[in-house]
Amino acid sequence: MLTFYDVAMGPPLHQRNSAVNPWKSRLALNFKNIPHQTTWVPLPNITKVRTNLGIPACRKFADGTDFYTLPILTDPTTSAKIGDSFDIAIYLHKQYPNSGGNLFPPQTLEYTYNPGVDILVPLSEINQSEYPQYARFNANVDAVFTMHTMLMVGGMPFDPETEEEAKKEFLRRAGLSSWDQFAIGVEARQQMLDSFEKALGDLAKLFGDGPFITEEASYADLIVGGWLRMANRTLPEGEWEALRGWHGGVFGRLHDALEVYAGVN
Ligand SMILES: N[C@@H](CCC(=O)N[C@@H](CS)C(=O)NCC(=O)O)C(=O)O
């Protein structure tokens, strides 16, 4: 049985998991129909868990220090330990070619998003070695959603047991001193929502009538689907409903079509 490490959010764990990169991998595991069990890791324990498994950090903070993250996947049959969502998808694709769907069918995936500013949150590194179209797509989709994650921060379902410690760490990273400073005024929030909708226009075009980019789902659909899962868990309900309906409802259709792969083991 494979072990999948996901971020523990407010109880019940299996209904509140919200972290985007673990979501991409969870959707991929289910899409590939791979039996696995989840280990829930509280935010403040991620560094310890990852270090104990001997997996180096794959992100860095703006100040150059290591940023230890999830997801992690361990596979006892091969002793593989993988600590990046994109690498996990490639691993599943190669190690289990005959199980489930095809994560990486050849396709061009032409989509770019230029945020116009330096993004504070370091983005997934582009793994140029394989499936560069997918790696580029992952980076661009990460960019468009990351630019608007401020909308989601306030709705993150922290686990009460570690909430204080987790919030303190988020504040440290952002150089802020109180959680209220993350709050956005009503007007600024509406502006950010408008910007989000507009920014997602080109991505929406790729899906046409949907629900997927092509006839069958691929890892590209799961990348967007992972972000939609996070949005669903963290946006106020009215805003989530609005997002579902943007651009002719493509994102709502994609989210619903991926429900079959969203089960938590
Ligand atoms: N490139 C990595 C990025 C992973 C990542 O950023 N994970 C976030 C959750 S989506 C995390 O573990 N954050 C821990 C924290 O903020 O302390 C991947 O794709 O797996």
CATH architecture: 3-Layer(aba) Sandwich
Query: In CATH's first tier, which class applies?
Result: Alpha Beta
Enumerate how many helices there are, as a single number: 11
Return the average pLDDT rounded to an integer.
93
> Structural class of the secondary structure composition?
alpha+beta
The set of bound ligands, ions and cofactors reads: glutathione
Give the CATH superfamily.
Glutaredoxin
- CATH topology (fold) name: Glutaredoxin
Largest sheet: 4 strands, mixed
What does the model show?
Residues 9-100 form the GST N-terminal domain. InterPro entries: Glutathione-S-Trfase_C_sf, Glutathione_S-Trfase_N, GST_UstS-like_C, Thioredoxin-like_sf. This is GST N-terminal domain-containing protein. It comes from Penicillium salamii. The chain has 265 residues and is α+β, with helices and mostly antiparallel strands. It has a single domain, classed as Glutaredoxin (3-Layer(aba) Sandwich), CATH 3.40.30.10. Helix content is 46%, strand content 9%. The protein is built from 11 helices and 6 strands. The strands form 2 sheets. It has a 4-stranded mixed β-sheet, sandwiched between helices. A two-stranded antiparallel ribbon has the order 3-4. A hairpin with a 4-residue loop joins β5 (72-75) and β6. The longest helix is centred in the last third of the chain and has 21 residues, at 237-257. The relative contact order is 0.16. Glutathione (GSH) is lined by residues 7, 19-21, 43, 46, 58-59, 69-71, 84-86, 124.
